[in-house]
Design a protein that fits this description.
The protein has 223 residues and is α/β, with parallel strands linked by helices. Helices cover 35% and strands 21% of the residues. Strands 3-2-4-1-5 form a five-stranded parallel β-sheet, sandwiched between helices. It has a five-stranded mixed β-sheet with strand order 6-7-10-8-9. Strand 8 and strand 9 form a beta hairpin. It starts with a strand and ends with a strand. The relative contact order is 0.15.
């Protein structure tokens, strides 16, 4: 019976994949991967020989119709991203929406997502939070920051290491130098690190010690 599986993959430590995820990846007819080279290493490690096809932000608009047709023909397909849960700042939404529109069953497995451990170990309130993902690079950035300056819930951002200083500088400017911030990088990996403090203190730290690796920023809401 046709079905799309959204399968989370480890964000670093390969032991974080679930038994169910491995079973699904072995049994489906096709795996859609954000980067087949990256995912190929994961599949090889777990001795999974399921065929793969590239599905990423640059081609997903063109490939959705063909994938839907394969699903209608009775195939089972798994979608994975390079790391974490598909559709969380990664491809997945367009295909999931198309499946829902065509009444094709979608099954999202629970599993690794970078912002959850970053939020929980930040020490900031996590009873209510808002996931912002990546800030706009240029257009709309200032407008978004002005709106978020009044946000009372804890905020979650993703950022690349070479843009972290710019993001922290913006937080100091729009949220205030004393706003509490937690930056987690390389989660679940050997050099995992979390730096906590005011926006200014955390900015000073990373200006003196340029960051490396994947980064999640947790920012205190406006009091």
């Amino acid at each position: 019976m046709s079905k799309l599986y959204l399968v989370p993959t480890p964000i670093g430590n390969l032991e974080d994949i679930t038994f169910r995820a491995l079973t699904v990846l072995k049994e489906v007819d096709l795996i859609l991967a954000e980067d087949t080279r990256t995912s190929g290493k994961l599949l090889k490690h777990f001795e999974i020989a399921t065929p793969m096809q590239s599905h990423h932000m640059h081609n997903e608009h063109k490939t959705v119709d063909r994938i839907i047709q394969r699903l209608k023909n009775g195939e089972t397909i798994a979608l994975i991203s390079d790391a974490g849960t598909p559709a969380i700042s990664d491809p997945g939404f367009l295909l999931t929406r198309a499946c829902v529109e065509h009444k094709i069953e979608v099954d999202c497995l629970p599993g690794a997502t970078a912002f959850v451990p970053a939020l929980v170990n930040s020490g900031l309130p996590n009873d209510k939070f808002v996931f912002e993902g990546f800030l706009p690079i240029k257009k709309g950035r200032q407008t978004r920051l002005k709106i978020l300056a009044e946000e009372t819930r804890t905020m979650i951002f993703y950022e690349s290491p070479h843009k972290l200083i710019k993001a922290l500088t913006s937080f100091v400017e729009y949220f205030g130098a004393d706003r509490q911030v937690s930056v987690s990088r390389e989660l679940t990996k050997i050099y995992e690190e979390t730096i906590r403090g005011t926006a200014q203190e955390v900015l000073n730290h990373f200006e003196a010690k340029p960051p490396k690796g994947e980064i999640v920023i947790i920012v205190e809401g406006n009091k």
